[in-house]
């Protein structure tokens, strides 16, 4: 079950190698665009380097009285071109960054709907949503700017160091010594940025989880007077996000000031050592001045390198959280076409279902929900599952749909183990109405054809009439095209159930699974639906879970379940005679004497 305030805190963060590998996988498809962005940045930087030289030439010509028109034009062209190239490079990088985010979102969304149900139960949907929306956004900076900053910063740094080495190796040694010392200290805080960012992103996930919890049960929250408590829950998560965001900002400020501090300290050290070397005549004063100028030139590449590492730390946190979703196991891809009923193909008739000594538990450590469950449903007709709450009736359907796999024994459809079926084909044979008859946001028509998008208007009209939804359609302002609200909130519970049944019937399944599908219907509608189901059962295998025995007394066979076991199988008349639990249920519900 999904808990509202427990995102996956047990997930291990990725190692640095794994993070870089994952980052490489995001950037690789866009390597040429990143290279182009890098080239533009380098050209822009080179243009910046040439400008002082051009300015110097201009001043020299002015001083010697030569014409400056040519050089002025050259300088203007240099400025305009440099700026244009830089702007183009920035655009290429932004576009690439957006493409990286899009690719990550597409991968995640593609996986989310294919997750195994057991995996989907591990992360609350709100947290999953925040990984798709918020965490992917953090990939933007790390995937392009960090890469380009690291490369341009490194090139400029090395170029400056080479020139400084020519000027004076001793002063270069002093400079690098100070930079390494300050850089080493700054490196210590870098993992703190990743940690704080990860906690902050977790808290953002908790905000989504909290909102999903309370907005998903909006009426219950209001009716329970729980608005303030729920608001406080979400606020607490928002405060946690703020706290960790501020912590990350603090460490970023520390790291961000390191570049300037390193250069300033190096300046003082070079001044002291260089001054002594000038005094002792080892180097001329002009060398010291040139060296100091280059030292200040270093500020930019060093700050770019620090920026790159900082963005990398933020991105690493996001990559870890995204990778956690990518590690969750998915069902083997069932192409959409496979999962839809094959209209027009040779219909092989009703499906048969057999459970052979099935044992099942939802997770290791939990008690068994099924123990040696065996029964057989040979083909068309109605089979009902009855028994106390928690007996394992709905779990029978979950195993047939292969939402979960049996821990022991075999579940067979058409004589074939469901594990050997192509998942798409298996599900395309089944129509399933789950217990709380979900209706999706959208129009009534979208809901009805959800499981059979190719259904004809005639088929739709026929199903509407049979499920008594035609009067509802007439009443709605835009008929079939009326929006039904979030989870069908603008409909009654009984209408939602009838829509869910109509949807399943429209799919023309070979096997129809109805889990408490008529529990909210009034007597008239229930009778009508009972007729529809009886009609469908003539050509289809229909399995129903029912609490109200009145709805299933006419079933071809009734499977009585209790505490994960099958107690008895028979018709209503047989079971009233042979099974005490069933007889008791019949006595209380049908007012017939228990034997
Ligand atoms: N996803 C799940 N994870 C863990 N346990 C579960 C899960 N779903 C159901 N269970 C447990 O398995 C047992 C059987 O559940 P199941 O829904 O099959 O019972 P049921 O007979 O259909 O009950 P009801 O008539 O109340 O719907 C229950 O004890 C339930 O708590």
UniProtKB/TrEMBL annotation:
Organism superkingdom: Bacteria
Localization, UniProt: Cell membrane
ABC transmembrane type-1 domain segment(s): 35-314
Assigned keywords, A-Z: ATP-binding, Membrane, Nucleotide-binding, Transmembrane, Transmembrane helix
Transmembrane segments: 32-50, 70-93, 138-163, 169-190
Domain called ABC transporter: residue spans: 353-588
InterPro entries listed in its UniProt record: AAA+_ATPase, ABC1_TM_dom, ABC1_TM_sf, ABC_transporter-like_ATP-bd, ABC_transporter-like_CS, P-loop_NTPase, Type_1_exporter
Stretches of the chain forming a coiled coil according to its record: none
Xref: SUPFAM superfamilies: ABC transporter transmembrane region, P-loop containing nucleoside triphosphate hydrolases
Its membrane topology: Multi-pass membrane protein
GO molecular function: ATP binding
Name of this chain's protein: ABC transporter ATP-binding protein
Organism of derivation: Streptomyces shaanxiensis
Taxonomic placement: Bacteria, Bacillati, Actinomycetota, Actinomycetes, Kitasatosporales
